[in-house]
Design brief:
Radius of gyration: 17 Å
Number of helices: 7
Low-confidence stretches: none
Strand content: 15-25%
Distance between the termini: 8 Å
Largest sheet: 9 strands, mixed
Bound molecules: glutamine
CATH class: Alpha Beta
Shape: globular
CATH superfamily: Class I glutamine amidotransferase (GATase) domain
Number of strands: 11
Helix content: 10-25%
């Protein structure tokens, strides 16, 4: 593989953020940021093996039928790749075992959780142990959220960050674990990388609207134990420039780069340092 950071963004069947995600990858320094329709992967024309950083974009996979990303999860888990003995999930498994990076945003996070790719406690990659379900308020939420970063988390994407301010837009963002034991394991291992918080990024909160969906323990995103697989409901790709900020015309000290870009910069740096 040449010395290029190669990101892939999977599109199709209802994603709607793939261009923004590819743009964020490029802005963060990835030399390649290909938007690939899932059908291309299933046809065997594009292989995950040729990339370092897999992005699962937001949107409305299969119209949220059966619950958001549920049908998409089955597709990725069980669909065969044409012309090979493999399923797409085999390529994905290899991608993970090769030490590469995966980030799922919103619908992409829902997809990772429903496939069992996250949190994958004990390395069990196909067992679902958490979910993202209907917002506590019973309606779609479209607002900006403050996220407190856990400084002790192994998450590669949030390394060195204290907090980020990002937009959310979802109907099914309430994080729920299947048991108190799962929730405790997530917390003990610091896999709950980002939580909805107050505007100073100090205290996780269950108060609406700071916590827009009633997520357990205010969880907005989680990673696996390696820190290389990460999913979150808020959209980092939607805040990569100061003009994306909702009050950019009134707040004069906003830096040129948006806070969401930091997550992609961490990813690109990790690839350069570890995978090239
Ligand atoms: N923006 C998104 O990715 C939305 C995810 C999903 N369709 C939901 O409403 O929860």
């Amino acid at each position: 593989m040449s010395k290029q950071v190669k990101a892939i963004v999977i599109a199709g069947n209802g994603t709607n953020c793939e261009r923004e995600v590819a743009n964020a990858c490029r802005l963060a320094g990835a030399e390649v940021a290909d938007i690939v329709h899932v059908a291309e992967l299933l046809a065997g024309r594009v292989r995950l093996d040729d990339y370092h950083f897999l992005n699962l974009a937001g949107g409305f996979l299969d119209g949220d039928d059966l619950g958001s990303a549920k049908a998409g999860a089955n597709r990725l888990l069980h669909a065969p790749v044409k012309g090979s003995q493999e399923h797409l999930s085999d390529q994905l498994q290899r991608f993970v075992e090769d030490g590469k990076l995966v980030m799922g945003v919103c619908n992409g996070f829902q997809l990772m959780v429903k496939m069992g790719l996250l949190p994958a406690l004990g390395g069990e990659h196909r067992k679902q142990s958490t979910t993202l379900t209907f917002n506590e308020g019973g309606r779609f939420e479209d607002r900006w959220a403050y996220l407190k970063v856990d400084p002790q988390s192994p998450c590669i994407f949030t390394k060195g960050l204290e907090g980020v301010y990002l937009p959310i837009r979802h109907g099914e963002g309430k994080f729920v674990a299947d048991s108190a034991a799962t929730l405790k394991a997530l917390e003990d291992k610091h896999l709950t990388a980002v939580k909805y918080s107050d505007a100073a990024y100090q205290a996780p909160t269950m108060d609406y609207p700071l916590n827009p969906n009633g997520s357990q323990n205010a969880i907005a995103g989680i990673c696996d134990e390696s820190g290389r697989l990460f999913g979150l409901m808020p959209h980092p790709e939607a805040y990569v420039h100061r003009t994306h900020h909702p009050r950019w015309t009134r707040e004069d000290d906003l830096p040129e780069e948006g806070m969401g870009l930091w997550l992609y910069q961490n990813a690109v740096r990790f690839v350069r340092e570890n995978l090239l």
